[in-house]
């Protein structure tokens, strides 16, 4: 959520030439886990319904693209090394850009530079 506005600007600027998708994975800062102050009150997901409910907070903040949720076995997060978050660009089904892991490696500006080069 910290860089959601930067992500939304990417969608606005490149939505005509790229498809965007958010995959909501396991909650990194659950209130019953490793939490910090002034964060959303989201507990660790114990069911798919919990994860879907938590993803609604993101949907309500209008990411300007579809939001899907990872399975409870975290198959997407594991396969993409995306815990707690990561940005990817795929082209013709192949990864052409893999950002660093978040929060420090989550860099929408890097994605912007990459997309500008291939647009």
Automatic annotation (TrEMBL):
* Reactions accelerated catalytically: 3'-iodothyronamine + iodide + A + H(+) = 3',5'-diiodothyronamine + AH2; 3,3',5'-triiodo-L-thyronine sulfate + iodide + A + H(+) = L-thyroxine sulfate + AH2; 3-iodothyronamine + iodide + A + H(+) = 3,3'-diiodothyronamine + AH2; 3-iodo-L-thyronine + iodide + A + H(+) = 3,3'-diiodo-L-thyronine + AH2
Q: Which Pfam families does this entry report, sorted A to Z? A: T4_deiodinase
Q: Which UniProt keywords apply?
A: Oxidoreductase, Selenocysteine, Thyroid hormones biosynthesis
GO terms (molecular function) for this protein are:
thyroxine 5'-deiodinase activity
- Tell me yes or no: is Oxidoreductase among this UniProt entry's keywords: yes
Which biological processes are named by the entry's GO terms? hormone biosynthetic process; thyroid hormone catabolic process
Q: Where are the transmembrane segments?
A: none
Job of this protein:
Responsible for the deiodination of T4 (3,5,3',5'-tetraiodothyronine).
- Family statement drawn from the similarity comment of this UniProt entry: Belongs to the iodothyronine deiodinase family.
| Designated name of the protein | Iodothyronine deiodinase
Protein species of origin:
Channa striata (Snakehead murrel)
């Amino acid at each position: 959520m910290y860089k959601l506005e930067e992500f939304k600007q990417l969608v606005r600027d490149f939505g005509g030439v790229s498809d965007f998708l958010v995959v909501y994975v396991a909650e990194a800062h659950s209130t019953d886990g490793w939490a910090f102050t002034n964060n959303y009150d989201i507990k660790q997901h114990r069911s798919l319904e919990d994860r879907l409910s938590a993803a609604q907070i993101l949907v309500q903040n209008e990411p300007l693209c579809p939001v899907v949720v990872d399975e409870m076995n975290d198959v997407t997060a594991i396969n993409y090394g995306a815990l707690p978050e990561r940005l990817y660009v795929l082209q013709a089904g192949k990864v052409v850009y893999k950002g660093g892991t978040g929060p420090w490696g989550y860099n929408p500006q890097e994605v912007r530079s990459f997309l500008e080069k291939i647009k």
